[in-house]
Amino acid sequence: MITNSIVSNNWGLLQVPFIKERNESRFSLKANSLRAFPVDEVRKDFPILSEKIKGKQLIWFDNAATTQKPACVLDRIDYFYRHENSNVHRGAHTLAARATDAFEAARESACRFLHAASPKEIIFVRGTTEAINLIARTYGKQNIEEGDEILISHLEHHANIVPWQLLCEEKGANLKVIPVDDTGQVDLMEYGKLLSEKTKFVALAHVSNALGTVLPILEMTRLAHGVGAKVFIDGAQAVSHLGVDVTELDSDFYAFSGHKICGPTGIGVLYVKWDILKDLPPYQGGGNMISDVTFEKTRYQDPPARFEAGTGNIADAVGLGAALDYVSGIGLDQIFSYEHALMDYAMEAMRLIPGLSLIGTAEQKTAILSFVLKGIPNGEAGKALNAEAIAVRTGHHCAQPILRRFGLESTVRPSLAFYNTTDEIDRMVHALRRQILLA
Q1: With 80 as the cut, is the pLDDT of residue 368 above it?
Q2: CA–CA separation, 248 vs 188, rounded Å?
Q3: FRET partner for 210 with CA separation of 20 to 30 A, picked from 91, 129, 133, 260?
Q4: Catalytic residue chosen out of the listed positions 72, 111, 168, 398
């Protein structure tokens, strides 16, 4: 018998299957996870998965770049524009009330999804990139001083590198990099050595977008707090795969982008602990974030309104709320178990392809399958897959430092989601084998 539970461990909150019977093998566990998940029913929820490219059925293996959208999200956005469209908070008419209710209900959905203490800790942003810049320009500008140290890992997306570089240049602070081992996992021993009384801030990906590595953020956060540092977690690649409880993780800041979890583009969520958020200065000035304006002085709204200047992306926030509710309805524990079994299936098949090297093989990882093929340029491999209507990403994935750690400038990056299937993986493996024969 297999049951799924949320457990706390050094990796954060992972949804992991537990084996209740001693004689149940890892293979049968994977097989059961694949059989138990209703992938055929789930696929019916995603209209674009019926799309054909030059007569061939689309296979969407570019989920780390963006996920596809279920019909309930598309319908919710359509309904908003047909029946609720208005600016929020200030209108005295019925549509303003409807729009405000829908917008704030989406904030409550995000609060539940992250297990935050209050919707007041949830700020709507354009995405993870804006969230990082917001924290760098508010908390960072307010608290980082000359000689202080900011730690990031070697695994970071450019969006979690550049804002901290800019802040360090402005403040005279120092940026330190946590190294990784040959599997692509952070070296906790070296991380511990880097932490000191000079460490004021630690910014970490929850999951690497280039390798799929799940960082041990629970332990890394605990160690950072031990020296008095605040911790920002980039959850863009985590939220669609792992259960996230910001209270359990004790992260000071957590952010993700809606389009990575079946929601619209141009909308995301930033969580900030209330004790920090209530004292942060404004990020942008304009309407909605003000309490009173004179030519001599402006008084600002309390958070989260203080950080949502101007007319927000209301319809897409509502759509994001629908996406979070949809994924939660399926269950992150079920999604993790299925995707993990799917990833194991794919990796076993890919390892049998002559000349294929998987990049990023940490024990704890999500279903990102970066690889290179000996003698075949990555761009050519991507084109060969595209000819079979298989969508993958090629390039540096906005994570050049970690690829260069492995002596590479680019990889081919298939990335799986809970609506993908073993049949689709088989098609990809067949296409790669054929490309090798033609090379």
Answers
A1: yes
A2: 20
A3: 133
A4: 398
Whole-Å CA distances, 268 to 18, 46, 162, 263: 33, 21, 19, 9
Q: Compute CA 60 distance to the chain's CA centroid, rounded to the nearest angstrom.
A: 17
Radius of gyration for the chain, computed over Cα atoms and rounded to the nearest angstrom: 22
Are residues 185 and 363 in contact, defined by beta-carbon separation less than 8 angstroms? yes
Give the span between the Cα atoms of 4 and 235, in whole angstroms.
22
| Per-residue pLDDT tens over the stretch 388-415 | 999 999 999 999 999 999 999 999 999 9
Q: Tell me the torsion sign for CA atoms 26, 207, 182, 361.
A: positive
Query: What is the pTM for the complete model shown?
Result: 0.92
CB environment 299-318: b (16+ within 10 A), e (fewer) = ebbebbbbbbbeebbbbbbb
pLDDT of residue 153: 98
Q: Is 398 a catalytic residue?
A: yes
Phi, psi of 193 (to 5 degrees): -70, -30
Q: Which residue has the tokens 């990575």?
A: 260
CA distances from 182 to 160, 179, 362, 363 (A): 22, 10, 9, 12
pLDDT tens figures, 250-285: 999 999 999 999 999 999 999 999 999 999 999 999
Query: Which residues neighbour 168 within 8 Å (Cβ) at sequence distance 6 or greater?
Result: 144, 150, 174, 175
Q: Average pLDDT over the chain, rounded to whole?
A: 92
As a residue count, the chain comes to: 439
